[in-house]
Amino acid sequence: MDATAPSSLHDFGFSEMVDVLAAGGVIAHHAKALWRALHRDGRQDLTSCDFLPPLKRWIDANVGEGKAFFLDAPEVVDEIHSSDGLTRKFLLRLGDGQVIETVLMGYDGRHTVCVSSQAGCAMGCVFCATGQMGFVRHLRPGEIVAQVLHARRILKQIDPRKRLRNLVMMGMGEPLHNINAVMQALDIISDVRGINIGPSKIAISTVGVVPGIRRMAEEDSPYRLAVSLHGSTEEERAALVPVSQRWPLEMLIGACREYGRKTGKRIFFEWTLIEGKNDSPETAARLVDLLDGIDAHINLIPLNPTSGFAGSASRSGHAFQKTLRAAGFPCTFRQRRGIDVAAGCGMLKADRRARSVPG
């Protein structure tokens, strides 16, 4: 990376912000005001902020086009509303022209933002539209943070009383493939002086990047871990999730056991039900044996229309759930959101689609 290239202020954690200002002769006290403007207030233009003179002079000299620092402010290419009245999908263009998707979802008493960590994805899961795009590049921390700020800004426009409470790293990309940027972004997002989404309200979903799971265990990461499993044998999983060739099922489950031992936290296993592939009673019984001894919650996900596969009929899905519950595992069906505007699980692929106007 070019050391002389401009940097985004949204990339920096609070201590780094203090260092950046200190290098410009501005004392640490002013970092609180800058942080508040960026992350609590979500300001997109700092020139009109009522800063004290030392900070204002630094911003005038250093922030803006052609200067050392800039703000991440992705362009909204499209905003699509689902007919469910609770889901909005945003197509956002980044500074280099790459496009990503972010989804704001409403549930009873809460709102959740689904955030992308990469443009495209290198994992290649056969039932996932993003996986079929291929990998373009990692997102910087500031590009991840900016998605949350945008969703929060929209939510405030809808109803100033509402607060963005939950965040899931389940958008485009594999979060643990971009773990450094993701962890930096989440530290910024969970900072109580700014956006302040609690770590227990943040989930990181992975298709099974074992080194990332082990790192989360070693660091006792405060965020929730969700593992996309989808197969109870190596053959079954490898047919759906190509990355299983690099990190086989036995290795993945071993990493999950290690994570549970070291952190004491529950793991959420995600299981997309695909007719004739992974929805049989025999598969459910093998899954019970596979997860034996792990503090696990299984989220069953009806397959969304993204490829040539068919979702399981409700009868087989509920039979699958019954087997897991009988073995003592909490097991729920994930609430579906935004299917009509391709905002559901596995459907994001940075397409511009026909706008649906809410009724």
What does this structure look like?
- This protein is α/β, with parallel strands linked by helices and 359 residues long.
- The protein folds into two domains: 7-70; 75-341, Aldolase class I (TIM Barrel, Alpha-Beta Barrel), CATH 3.20.20.70.
- Helices cover 33% and strands 20% of the residues.
- The protein contains eleven helices and 14 strands.
- It has helices at 14-23, 29-40, 53-62, 129-133, 141-158, 179-190, 210-218, 234-238, 249-263, 281-290, 314-326, and strands spanning 7-8, 69-70, 75-81, 87-93, 99-107, 110-114, 118-120, 135-138, 164-169, 202-206, 224-228, 267-273, 296-302, 331-333.
- The strands form three sheets. A ten-stranded mixed sheet has the order 3-4-5-6-9-10-11-12-13-14, covered by helices on one side. It has a two-stranded parallel sheet with strand order 1-2. The protein has a two-stranded antiparallel sheet with strand order 7-8.
- Helix 11 links the parallel strand 13 and strand 14 (331-333).
- Helix 7 (210-218) packs parallel to helix 9 (249-263) and helix 10 (281-290) packs parallel to helix 11.
- The protein is elongated.
- Mean pLDDT is 89; it is low at 338-348 and 352-359.
Give a short account of the largest sheet: 10 strands, mixed
Task: Please provide the ordered H/E string of secondary-structure elements.
Answer: EHHHEEEEEEHEHEHEHEHHEHEHE
How far apart lie the N and C ends?
48 Å
CATH class of the largest domain: Alpha Beta
Average of the residue pLDDT scores: 89
The CATH topology of the largest domain is: TIM Barrel
Q: Which of globular, elongated, flat, extended, rod-shaped describes the shape?
A: elongated
Q: Determine the number of helices (DSSP H or I, runs of at least 4 residues).
A: 11
Question: Uncertain spans, ≥5 residues at pLDDT below 50?
Answer: 338-348, 352-359
Strand-residue proportion: 15-25%
Query: Order of strands side by side in the largest beta sheet?
Result: 3-4-5-6-9-10-11-12-13-14
Computed Rg: 21 Å
What's the architecture of the largest domain, going by CATH? Answer: Alpha-Beta Barrel
